[in-house]
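Hey, can you fold this one?
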Amino acid sequence: MYLLTLFKKEKLVWVTFFITLIFCLFLFSWKNVCSSEILNLDLEECIEIALENNLGYLISQSKVGVKDEQIKEVRGAKRVNAKFQGGYIRMNEAPDMESIAEGDYSYLYSSGTGVPYISVNVSKVLYSGGKLETLIDLAKAEQSISVNDLEINRQELIFKVTEAYYRVLQAEGLKRVSEQALTQIKAHLETSRSLLAEGLIAPIDLNRINSQLSNLEHNLIRAENGYMMAVFYLNSAMGIPLQTTINLQNSLSYEAHIISLEEALEAALQNRPEIHNINQQRVIMEGMVDIAKSNKKPQIVMNMESGLAGWKVAVLGEVPIFDGGVNKSKIKQAEMNLSLVEQSKKQAEQLIELEIRSVYLSMKEAEKLFKVTEQGIKDSRESFRIAQVKYNEGVATNIEVIDAQSALIEAETNHLNALYEYNTSWASLIKAMGLF
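Sure. Predicted structure:
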């Protein structure tokens, strides 16, 4: 009977082991399937993922919550404050000095008398010279600054993701150009081998084509690596695993944006969170001046306390008379800090204007380059086609074909770079205007 029971227990252990093993294998395979899943994303979806996962942005959100609680803390100082105290106090009688003089220290060993202690204390600031009200305004201003800082981080994150998104599209286009060029040169190599067999070209022409083929394979390797690095950068900005495979839904394209430099400057001065922060800094500095001045005003506090002996009510007033010039110095410091805020605002406006002008010119430059390269691609493609036809007919050299292809590669690369610069410059301008 014992052996049968032991056998059943051993069988149960093995069954449990196999079930657990199968379950672990299922989880492992499911994880691999999920990690290999391709994410099809457009720009808006990438931005949404980043705002949900980026740790820096989440930390900024937490800081806003801290400032909200600080406002509640400061408001609490204006309200009624109450506390309860309870305990047990044991006291000895006062020592008899004559007995001590005679050498009697027995009072040290007396048990004394024990009494309970119960107290309820209620206090309220009746008048603070405007200090508490100003402290509340300062806490609100600091909370507004934290909200503006959160907006700054949000816009920076959106720009970072947008720039990375366009970089992936650019790298994908450059990889496609390299692949196309490699296909073209391989087709040209096959044509040249046929012409060599017919004795229409010299063997050295094949050497030049092979050399071009090697260069294009080198370019393709670098383009593929550049594409993977761009994907890693975008995944990092979105806060997802770097090895996640993504497929972007858009491609680099041109869309005309009609806005004048003056409109961009005006929008920036109205919307930039940095300007709003400086305005809140002014509120804080003005509040610091008021607090320093309120120290010269009377402070009135009401205090009520109950105990076993009854209630005690006190209304206490405090009027500063002389502090050695400490408060006067605080007022001067606060007024000087207030003047520094005004200077900081002028400096910030100058830097914003410089940023707007720089980004605006970059966008216009990229727009002109795009239009130039667009025509350049058409001309280069036609030149390459004509060179191939002439070469096949024996009226053009191999060098002409390779030169025409190199010109086409350069034109397509310049076109992609101009599109990338135009789109990222426009994104930079939106961010500079505070409109992301």
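The mean pLDDT is 83. Let me know if you want another pass with a different chain boundary.
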